[in-house]
Structure formats: structure tokens, C-alpha cells
Amino acid sequence: MEELSFFVGVIGNVVSVLVFLSPVGTFWRIIKHGSTEDFESVPYVCTLLNSSLWTYYGITKPGAYLVATVNGFGILAEAVYVVLFLVYAPRKTKAKTGILVGIIDVGFLAAAILVTRLALEGESRIDAIGFMCAGLNIIMYGSPLAAMKTVVSSKSVEYMPFFLSFFLFLNGGIWAFYAFLEQDIFLGVPNGIGFLLGTAQLLLYAVYSNARPSNNSISQGLLEQGLQK
């Protein structure tokens, strides 16, 4: 059972790395254009917090080093995205992003670590960190719902990138299975939800993939927004 759990966790790490790298196309475009255009920094700021909390969880819980390693990579990737956003964003957006980073990625994270380290110990500490991680993960997995609504209303999948939906499906399924093997409810619940949402997106893709795409000029921007989320 331990060998199977380790094997599934390694596969989960590989898929998660691909998910973390999915915004590379967006930032290559930002670098080429020298501007963040209409893209938002919030998804990257929140994902940085999410990766930081899961890394803390993986370090705190015995035997959860696979969770810590992949999310450690996530911290590096998201930190690069946030820095690039700060470099190329307009002054007003840059200020907003800096404030968000200070409040969410520095303030909230520091408070969470201090409270759990000073006020809690043992299983209570692990449970508290797990609740925070699971709650934030559920919120983030829910972000594609807007893209799914757009697909249904427009009857076109141009607003929902296939590979992003596929990797969310794969990522959620693998980590939910890993959580089942490890009996980890904090990993299992959010990733189970992610697996179901990914399945729903792939079903929508199958239904609307042959529909005639819209010529709406904002389609490419929405596509990139889907990638960054």
C-alpha cells in the first residue's frame, strides 16, 4: 500500500507541476507586449498563498513530504508570476497587486503560521492547517464555474481551454485517490470536488466542441484568463 501511495503521489506531483506551468503562455504574451493588459493578478496571488499553506501542511504532517515538494515548486512558480506582474502592470494595478501580496501572501500567511505554531500542537495544529488549505482549495477549484457558464451561454468551447480542463480533471482525480490511500480528508475533499468539476468541463467540451466558434474579439483575452485561473 505504501508503494502504491508513493507512486500515485509522484504522478500527482508531475501533473501538478504541469498545472503550475499552465500560465507560462500568458506571461510570455505579457513579456512580449510589455504589459499585463486586462489580466488580473488575484489568481496568482491566491495560488501563491494556497501553495504556501499546502507546503506548510506537508512539512507539519508526518509523511506528507510529497505534498510539500510539489507545492514548494508552486511557490517558486507563482512568485515568478507575481514578480512579472509587478514589473509589467500599470502603476495603479501594480500598487493594487503589491497591497494584495502584503495582506494575503505575507500578512495572512504569517498570522496563520504564528497562530498554529504558538496556540496549537500535534493533531490540532495539523487539522487547523488542513482546514485552511481545504477551504482555499475549494474556492479556487470553483473558479472555472464562470468559464463553464460562458461555454453554455455562448455554445462555444473557445472560452474554456481543453488542456486546462483536462489537467484539472487529472490533478483532482490523482490527488483524491492519493488522499484515499493516505486517509487524508483535507486532501480528499477539495480534490474530489476538483475531479468532479474537471469531469463536468470535459463533458461540456464534448458537447460543444463542434459548435461554430464566436468571432468575438475578446475571445483570446478570455482564453488567457482561463489559463491563468
TrEMBL record:
Annotated transmembrane regions: 6-30, 65-87, 99-120, 126-147, 159-181, 187-208
Pfam families: MtN3_slv
Domain of life where this protein originates: Eukaryota
Keyword Nucleus belongs to the record: no
Localization annotation: Endomembrane system
Membrane topology value: Multi-pass membrane protein
UniProt cross-references to InterPro entries, sorted A to Z: SWEET (IPR047664), SWEET_rpt (IPR004316)
Family per similarity comment: Belongs to the SWEET sugar transporter family.
PANTHER family in UniProt: BIDIRECTIONAL SUGAR TRANSPORTER SWEET17 (PTHR10791:SF120), RAG1-ACTIVATING PROTEIN 1 (PTHR10791)
Protein name: Bidirectional sugar transporter SWEET
Species: Hibiscus sabdariffa
